Amino acid sequence: MKVGIFYGGTSEVAGQIETVVQAEKDGFDSIWFGQIFGPDVMTVLAMAGQKTNRIEVGTSVVPTYPRHPHVMAQQALTTQAATNGRFSLGIGLSHQPVVEGMWGLSYDRPGVHMKEYLDVLLPLVNEGQVSHNGELFKVNAQVSVPTPKPPEVLIAALAPMMLRMAGARTAGTVTWMVGPKTLESHIVPRLTKAASEAGRPAPRVVVGLPVAVVDDVAEGREKAARSFQLYGTLPNYQRVIEKEGVAGPADVAIVGDEASVEQQLRDLASAGATDFLTAAFPVGDDVKGSLARTRALVQSLVGKI
Q: How much is the pTM?
């Protein structure tokens, strides 16, 4: 299992770029950025690609609704060119409260939206042109951005239909708040079966979770409960938390001392995770020390899980 970082930190562009540079120096396999309220992450990764040579950079994830698939393809190909072929594009639907309440767009029929979005995006990314006449998108367009190879496209998939789509049509999935039981019983089997039936390579299963290396597990989980409570209110995450058989996000977080966290990461690999994204969170009064301890442990496991 490859070991990377799920970026969380400053919203300043220069600081984000420096974080990518430092992650490469520290030997991590990858670093992935979520697109929420800060800078445009593909722009940041394109700039960071000019200052790095090896590390994979990815999005986890860019919401589809506010970006036309032709624009998404242009940005992805440009970022792939700027990183010399080290970019992976993770996309997702986001959530109904965001799409409708914040952006004022319709969240109706999200499965159809993603299907047609891929109908437009994938030909543009892989072949440079598309002719699509669907219900939601009618696109006849080209894009010309020379790249070493097309970027991999992954979709955030938790429900059965989305997992089938991810396996059959893309390089795999990027998950958040999914524990080992749900990976092994729900995510990996559906994704793998869909890929096999479509004649595609074994899919990537990129798993992001909160991580804290601490001695006081109760304190760590209490902090996780406060820091990640929002995810327990969103239906998509509620369903996978219930599948895991736990009460909330705090119980899915990876918390414990060095030996315990290492074992929990190995359990994810055994459940079928191909990549792990570390979302380190601080516990206790010594914030910097807490984060450093978590990073040091995860860094030591690169290439060993």
A: 0.97
